[in-house]
Amino acid sequence: MEPPRLTGRAKLEAEGLFTLKKQPGDGMCCVQGCRNRSAPRRKVGATQLCDRHWQQRWRMLNPKRSAYTALRDHAKARGIEFTLTYDYFLGLTDAYGYFEHQADSPGDVLSIDRVDATRGYLPGNV
User: Fold this and answer.
1) What is the pTM of this model?
2) Residue 16: which residues within 8 A CB-CB, separation 6 or more?
3) CB atoms within 10 A of CB 30
């Protein structure tokens, strides 16, 4: 038998990503210290989050998808061709331990780089 699905405040508390207010004001974000109004479409069960905290929660719960989306969006903003699929990106990052790597110093951080900087983010060029 499956455990009951958590919703609302209980779900956010179980995730442990944010410290929640004891009594959020009506229509306000429920994250402690946040004074933003909650967005009506940003509900987790019955508990509301502002756009900032909704996006932050999504990034923490989906780190691989978030990294892929950020890489793609930054390439687009710089006008660089990007044809990597999400599956190719996962294979590449899993092969090199991209998400498991713990940097000991700022210079020890892994990044997705292009072999030939004149070409885009293409399979075989990253």
Assistant:
1) 0.78
2) none
3) 23
